[in-house]
Amino acid sequence: MELADFQARIEATFGERDRARVVDGTFRWWVEEVGEVAKALRRHDRAELEHELGDALAWLVSVAGTVGVDLERAAARFADGCPRCGRSPCACPLA
């Protein structure tokens, strides 16, 4: 599924609820899902991790939709590699 298609599907499925929840509520759900990704990582549970990453991605898309951000456009800055050094793979010093 293309990112734009996924964003449209999430909007069609959850957009009305996301708008009723407002940005802050939707954002908090996303943060909770990121916490569940962290737990799955610590447990080394691949199935749980796949599930939680899917949830976190869906909630991120919901946040973007609630504030009117086109994720295809947002992701485009990575199309040619690292947006900082311009290389792929990235040649920036490790943080």
Protein described:
The chain has 95 residues and is mainly α. Helix content is 72%, strand content 0%. Helix 1 crosses helix 2. The longest helix has 41 residues. The chain is globular, with a radius of gyration of 15 Å. It starts with a helix and ends in a 20-residue tail after the last helix. 13% of the residues are buried. The model has no long low-confidence stretch (mean pLDDT 96).
Strand content: under 5%
Structural class comes to mainly alpha
Cα end-to-end separation: 33 Å
Mean pLDDT: 96
Unreliable runs:
none
DSSP E strands, number? 0
Helix-strand pattern, N to C? HHH
Rg is: 15 Å
Assembly state (oligomeric): single chain
Range of helix content: over 70%
* Distinct helical segment count: 3
Major beta sheet, specifics? none
What would you call the shape? globular
Set out the fold topology:
Layout: H1 3-43, H2 46-67, H3 71-75
Helix pairs in contact: 1-2
Compact overview of the structure:
By secondary structure, the chain is mainly alpha-helical. It contains three helices and no strands. The model has no long low-confidence stretch (mean pLDDT 96).
Core attributes:
95 residues, mainly alpha, 3 helices, globular
